[in-house]
Design a protein that fits this description.
This protein folds into two domains: 206 residues, HUPs (Rossmann fold, 3-Layer(aba) Sandwich); 89 residues, Tyrosyl-Transfer RNA Synthetase, CATH 1.10.240. The protein has 13 helices and seven strands. The strands form three sheets. A three-stranded parallel beta sheet has the order 1-2-3. The protein has a two-stranded parallel ribbon with strand order 4-5. The radius of gyration is 21 Å and the shape is globular. The two termini are 31 Å apart. Bound molecules: adenosine-5'-triphosphate (ATP) and L-tryptophanamide.
Amino acid sequence: MEENLAKKRLYSAVQPTNALTIGNYIGAINNMVALQDEYDCTYAIANMHAITVRQQPAQLRANTLSVLALYLACGLDPQKCTLYVQSHVPCHAELAWVLNTFTYVGEMERMTQFKDKSAKHADNINMGLMDYPVLMAADILLYKADVVPVGIDQRQHLEICRDIAVRFNNVYSPTFTVPEGIYPKVGAKIADLSDPAKKMSKSSENPAGTIFMNDGRDAIIKKFRRAVTDSDGEVRYDPENKPGISNLLSIYTVFTGKSVAQAEAEFAGRGYGDFKSAVAETVADALAPVQAEQARLLADKGYLDSVLAEGARRAYKTASSTLAKVYRKIGFYQL
Ligand code: ATP
Ligand code: LTN
């Protein structure tokens, strides 16, 4: 499949920092799969973003293939979309350097994720961590993406990407497509089960509140059973006053396809114990076939490598043409 000119272009990526969580699935992968027919899709495994926090090399390598296998197991079709590893396409680092000169230090210091991760990794507040949004802007702009499906935590990064694109276009001539974010209607920010004020995150230090896509049934049931709720006993969607229950309702509705009203009616007059068990069983049942397919794919490294090789070839074609255009516009001498 070569670039499809009739369809709008879509880009997204996930960092191979650990096993993925149901937050990543609900916030991002679910939409990535749903939109693959409608758009010309490019999906990266963002290993260059991952190293902004210290990684174990062997783990990073293994996680890279795990994310690809999960993408495929969740239903991404390499015939329809380009699936590749960010570091396989050198244009990302090259465009990020140029975009750095259109980005202000103050803007990067104000980014919420930078502040959160700086607090969490106070011993390693490196330039890459601060420059993370610029590399992300380079990812998106290289592929001329019209839309970017992500969880709500990435909204600020998408806004800065749009600002950088507009700034560049204003200084030169229209060069970059200014992208729009696509956020899920339900579950744009799944909370940690043990602390509903926190985002569920794959690199959280407390795995008790995180459901990983590769968790076994027993672990899933145990974690949901311990999920923090409230004392009023009613299964009702009210994120302000009942964040724990509302989070469980979001998870339940995404995995069952039921509406919030249907779910509330189903558990009216029943205790939280029943509700938590139903959510746990639903999630465990939904994940079992995905896990089996991911394991099958991980046993076929030859196939996974072939998907990545073809993905890198296609991605490079688009990315290098955008980069060449940028270099021309800014006045880099060409041979
Ligand atoms: P890390 O903990 O390593 O920073 P993460 O779990 O936040 O990672 P990312 O790789 O940064 O995951 O994000 C991949 C995608 O998943 C992004 O689109 C992000 O918005 C989405 N996402 C991450 N966590 C959640 C969540 N709790 N709810 C909804 N979407 C999420
Ligand atoms: N920063 C993103 C991952 C990411 C991304 C992207 C998402 C890297 N490059 C480009 C969308 C588009 C995150 O989810 N933390």
